[in-house]
Amino acid sequence: MSYVDSTQAGVLASTATYVYSKEFDDKFQTWLANALGCFPIHVKPMFREFETAISTNVLNVFFEFYQIEFTGTPYDVEETDDHLDQAYEGTAHCRVKLIGENSREKAFLLHDLIYLSQNVDALQKFGLSINEAQIIEIDQLAEGHARTPMSTVDLTLDYSYVRRWSIKSIVSAPTSIQNS
For 81, which of 33, 65, 89, 115 is 20 to 30 Å away at the CA? Predict the structure, then answer.
């Protein structure tokens, strides 16, 4: 399928900043590793890596954005002769599962750190801000005969992004004058 600008029939071409993607996951992964003071290699998106072996002597962190609710309709941010930028806003829900060494302590740290803006400023660079954190589970993961400490934190985040549509203004549309 090829995308077009508004001077042709078809689906409009667009680009988006901060839209949910692998790059978005990578940025959140880096922020989460820094916030919890652990190695980024031990922080992974749940749907990609949960089946990998879990090391019980380090903190393993898995996260998943499991729901994004949009609020209202998109609104125009900028309109030029070449494009229209529209902003989309909503709420993203993210589950963070911490398994292994210090997982309970780190769950409380994740809950507590969101209340200081310096701790979450980096999230705003890719369209997120945290408005709530709840520790929903403090448990143990059974692995054979061993039991590994595990905690789960649900984050509620404000989420926004901008999509640029290839919409030409009426001024830049091709015209022709017909003689009758």
Answer: 89
For CA atoms 107, 116, 124, 87, the dihedral sign is positive
Within 10 Å of residue 17's Cβ, how many Cβ atoms? 13
Residue linked to tokens 């529209």:
86
Contact 89, 158 (CB under 8 A): yes
Pairing verdict, β 59-70 and 43-45: parallel
Beta strands 84-100 and 59-70: pairing type? antiparallel
pLDDT by residue for the chain (180 residues), tens digit each?
A: 567 777 777 788 888 887 788 888 999 999 999 999 998 888 988 865 555 556 667 899 999 999 999 999 999 998 888 888 899 999 999 999 999 888 999 999 999 988 888 888 888 888 888 889 898 888 877 666 677 888 999 999 999 988 888 887 655 455 555 555
Whether pTM exceeds 0.85: no
Instruction: Report the alpha-carbon distance of residue 168 to residue 97 in Å, rounded.
Output: 46
What is the C-alpha separation between 56 and 149, in angstroms, rounded? 9
